[in-house]
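Example record

One chain of 331 residues, shown exactly as stored in the release files.
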Amino acid sequence: MLNIAGTDGSVMVPVVSETGALMAWLLYPDPLGTLQEYYPHKSIPRAYTEHTQSIPSPYSTEPGTGRHGSVRLPASSLYKNFHSWAGQLFIQSLKRKNMATESSKGVSADRIKNDPLFERTRENMAEFARAGKAAKLMRTIFREVMIYAKDKITQARLVKVFSRVLSADPVSARGERTVGNGDLLQLQHFNFNVRAGLTDTLYARCPVSINRVTGQATVSIPAFVPRIMVQGPRGTTHFKVVAAAAAINFDTEAYEYVMQGTPELAWDHAPTVPSTLSLALPANSPDTIVVALGIEFYQRVNSRSYALKTGECNATSVVKVDVPPPPPPSL
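Predicted structure tokens for this chain:
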């Protein structure tokens, strides 16, 4: 590998990995020739001229300036020739913050929007945008119960689920499919926190029922021994079970939301008392009803409770989805 000096005083230094593979060239502007004192221009001949990192030597060298001579090229040739030889990108360093990259002639946004060749692309983009909006809406609605029970890729995982929901739309044309017409039952059992599913944290089974006529969603919590039926993080002294329900119109993004939780329960060996969480929504709602159930952990110190925000055990999951019945066929 060799250092290259341009006629304008620039010095280009190769950067190699531990295995000797060329990673990049560092181009240092050096009009005063200061760096050339520290980087002697040494060239090592390579026998394999077809290798992607081989440096052919069609240029004349000046004897006596180094063990193998120095290669001196015009500065304009540094970018073109050595980029094509090594197949690597240049990095301009020192006080310059620009990174020189290969010029790319990508497809323009105007062509994507209007060219008939990109019709499928436009359809995919439109449906992906709808899935993204639905995922964001879900996170906004259930933020109160998932604030400590989420991960860094919750949005991405929701987009993936809503893409499947949207793809199940049986009536709309490609590119016009909507979440509202899709299979929203695929949302059931979705865990907002991929590190802690509700069934891996709360082992007591809590039946959920929805009465669409009255708009009542009910979560029945049986009696259980917390130390046995709850997997708590280190430092836990108390916990509570929280439930939230929403009637959601994914097309208009309108929704009704209600949330309720148990009081803080001691994480010990004393059995809990059976309880019921009632969530009242509008009666005869024409929208999809989604119920989420979660568990939160606390540490009580001097009669004050502090939320444990660890993502290891805090869990919230979609436990019930009820879609409205299809409208009767028109006569």
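Notes: Residues 4-92 form one domain.
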